[in-house]
Amino acid sequence: MNDEQLIARRNRTLGPTYQNFFDRPLHLVRGAGMTLWDADGREYLDCYNNVVSVGHCHPRVVEALCRQAGTLNTHTRYLHAAIVELGEMLVDRLPGALDTCVFTCTGSEANDLALRLARTHTRRRDIIAVDHAYHGHLTSLIEISPYKFAGKGGTGAPSHTHIVPMPDVFRGLYRGEEAGIKYAEQFEEGVARTGGVAAFIAESLLSCGGQIELPPGYLQAAYRQVRAVGGVCIADEVQVGFGRVGTHFWGFETQGVVPDIVTMGKPIGNGHPLAAVVTTPEIAASFANGMEYFNTFGGNPVSCAAGLAVLDVIEEEGLQAHALQVGNHLKQALANLMAAHPIMGDVRGRGLFLGVELVRSRETLEPAAAEASHIVNRMRDHRILLSTDGPLHNVIKIKPPLVFSKAEADWMVQILATVLAEDACQV
Amino acid sequence: MNDEQLIARRNRTLGPTYQNFFDRPLHLVRGAGMTLWDADGREYLDCYNNVVSVGHCHPRVVEALCRQAGTLNTHTRYLHAAIVELGEMLVDRLPGALDTCVFTCTGSEANDLALRLARTHTRRRDIIAVDHAYHGHLTSLIEISPYKFAGKGGTGAPSHTHIVPMPDVFRGLYRGEEAGIKYAEQFEEGVARTGGVAAFIAESLLSCGGQIELPPGYLQAAYRQVRAVGGVCIADEVQVGFGRVGTHFWGFETQGVVPDIVTMGKPIGNGHPLAAVVTTPEIAASFANGMEYFNTFGGNPVSCAAGLAVLDVIEEEGLQAHALQVGNHLKQALANLMAAHPIMGDVRGRGLFLGVELVRSRETLEPAAAEASHIVNRMRDHRILLSTDGPLHNVIKIKPPLVFSKAEADWMVQILATVLAEDACQV
After folding, report:
1. Cα distance from A185 to chain B (closest Cα, Å)?
2. Domain boundary among A316, A335, A362
3. Inter-chain contact B101–A284, Cβ cutoff 8 Å?
4. Are residues A164 and A271 in the same domain?
5. Could you report the per-residue pLDDT of B326-377, keeping only the tens digit for each?
6. Is residue B290 domain-shared with residue B156, that is, in the same domain?
7. How far apart are CA A402 and CA A69, in angstroms?
């Protein structure tokens, strides 16, 4: 079956909601470490996939998954050691107050559960979220995700959702050293307009917002204000957590705060459907009101075996420190590239959570979205996989598996320089 | 680590929302086919687990899962054959109008997506659901699940939820041959009280309602009435589908209807987190309004490999026909047992989706909930795993893996007879 036939069958059976990356869809058949192979045996460097964070098909994770799948797979109403061990390992990596872990299958399920926890605990419904945020594909999460409700096909924010501006120091209202304080003041005005909230939810670095680092002091001030009106603070670490930012295991640690609820997903099982919520004993006690939470597949022994293997690999291969080292190296190389390429408006991020914002003018900041799309498709021709992000679709996102090497980073930057030299990228 | 230590650690880390089956929790370590083993090497016959429907750790499914996990696991924005093949196989098993398949990770995600499809298509919000139903643990599903919102910790039905009575021919208002028509009239009155609805959602046999078969004609009339007011009909096949009812592959087929949306989950991956929604091209087209649906883990190659293997096994081992044969045999044996045990008020269900409702009196139908719990715990002492269900907690549910043999069914009935002869079961 050739690709055209596969595309036709895919369109017929999966329908119009399924989209493909790239102008010419990519048909992948194999992966290992940083490498993906297409159906014609061509090799690609994966600089985009933050789910398989310890590398494609890591043998240790595959082995753990297979061993447990052949031994026992059942649910959490029986005792099993793996779920307890994984819960303990996650809780051990979090501040002391966060000691209670509940497993789900996806980051969306984790964020929905976080909202249920917050709403049950506070007996309020309203949620504060950050502009352009995406917290998941479920009904309750579309309602708090401007990325979805304010975009094509969206029906706007419901009355219980309150949106605060992105604290974007490149393109937003405030820049420079005072930005954290200024955005916090704007946040405070936002809180004042609510009649009290159940929760504030935010990623600790903004993904769909365009790979944006929060300015120093922002979350500390925001958390203080939310708690002052009786709300709880949810850190959505689904994309950010698990060592990717390099300096810390969790993104919220870069802001010096302790959330009341932390959600995690994507890299937790290296692609296996697994996610979790960790919260405080007080919130867990409020939630234990007689309505059992049961998630059929959530926390099953096979998922937990994968989760345990991922944590072991991150630890033993020193992937957090590695992400910091390679990320710093890459960020510096990208910054050097900026000097020669006026289209590069900003290089930002931490560790291996990086973004390059493209502009047609560094004065007006006119977004270079068509150019971003061109670059991603041309990089694919050179067998390097990247993607775009941001509300203006002009941010190249770089979120490779954490096993990314300096040599691979250098190669990526070298090819990027070639593509940036093309006519289509001159501004 | 002994069980007491494991329970203490579990309670400390997973918190109060996690519950265990049985008065003495069961610590399982291995499974194969119909058999589970505990940490002390004791063997149990699993007559309850409808998720591992082709048997615990089926070698064919494990092999498919492991092979793909070692080859490639990525998401649906790249082309891959497995997701297309699985989508086609599911669509092929459904009536012609249902031709578009979307993958999720859990039955809850599938039901939430079904609501989103229905609401986007109809531009309405209201949902009709059946009393005591459970459709999932997400915010949007608690709202339409009386099993949750009307129980402990629940906050009641929101204004967009409309509940119709269970068409229960054992304990409900109407019995006998006319019941289907009478309950349909009651349903019509329910529809009339709404100002138009987005959807009617129902399981095709009622699980949490107490393993209840719908009376003939019920769904045909209900679907007609829902469509008359512009709503769509959702069949929740998460527990019922995939051959369990024996006569048909899907539960809705027993009622001679064609839904507009079908959701499926639990047995689809034999325990691997996978689920799906199948709908019509019209509804899929309405949903393709520019807001992409993307589920990070949903429809990944590993999940699809497991799903393909499950369908192959059901086909090659003839498990649907087997479920009918063994189910009929078991149902007859249970019916025979009723003569000697007045506590058995009703034996019902289809194929290997069976329930035994226990009563203290066949006249008053006073529910025998304590006795049901006693029986389940005593059966566990005899190393047979069952569970209870139903709004009055007095229904023994029997939903074994479909590989259940007649000899195992006979053994289960023999042990049940022994337990029913105990003092605690005399009424």
Report:
1. 32
2. A316
3. no
4. yes
5. 999 999 999 999 999 999 999 999 999 999 999 999 999 999 999 999 999 9
6. yes
7. 26
Q: Give the closest of B7, B81, B84 to A14, CB-based.
A: B84
Say if strands A261-264 and A232-236 run parallel, antiparallel, or are unpaired.
parallel
Same domain, A50 and A73: no
* pLDDT (tens digit per residue) in A279-328: 999 999 999 999 999 999 999 999 999 999 999 999 999 999 999 999 99
Candidates B16, B20, B79; nearest CB to A26? B79
Closest alpha carbon within chain A to B26: A78
Question: Is A71 found in the same domain as A25?
Answer: no
3-state SS assignment for residue A233: strand
Min Cα–Cα distance to chain A from B174, Å: 30
Domains of chain B: total: 2
Nearest chain A residue to B288 by CA: give it.
A17
| Contact list, A21 vs chain B (CB under 8 Å) | 77-78
Whether B77 and B226 share a structural domain: yes
**A106 with B105: Cβ contact below 8 A:** yes
The token pair at B12 is 């400390």
The answer to whether B271 contacts A139, with C-beta atoms less than 8 Å apart, is: no
Domain end (from B258, B287, B316): B316
What confidence tens digit (pLDDT) does each residue in B60-112 have? 999 999 999 999 999 999 999 999 999 999 999 999 999 999 999 999 999 99
Phi, psi of B189 (to 5 degrees): -60, -40
CA of A370 vs chain B CAs: smallest distance (Å): 19
Which residues of chain A are within 8 Å of residue B36 when distances are taken between CB atoms? 72, 74
Q: What is the DSSP letter of B284?
A: H
Contact (CB<8Å) B72/A29 = yes
pTM: 0.98
User: Which residues of chain A make contact with B73, given a CB cutoff of 8 A?
Assistant: 31, 52, 56-57, 270-272
Q: Is A148 exposed, middle or buried (0-12, 13-18, 19+ CB in 10 A)?
A: buried
**What is the DSSP pairing of strand B28-32 with strand A205-206?**
unpaired
Domain coverage including residue B148:
59-316
Exposed / middle / buried, residue A218 (Cβ in 10 Å: 0-12, 13-18, 19+):
buried
Residue from the list A81, A113, A294 with its beta carbon closest to the beta carbon of B1: A81
List the Cα angle A65/A69/A71 in 5-degree steps: 120
Determine the residue among B7, B75, B125, B139 to mutate to test chain A binding: the one whose Cβ has the most chain A Cβ atoms within 10 Å.
B139
Three-class SS state of B399? coil
**CATH code, A402:** 3.90.1150.10
Tell me how far apart the alpha carbons of residues B93 and B241 are, in angstroms, rounded to a whole number.
Answer: 11
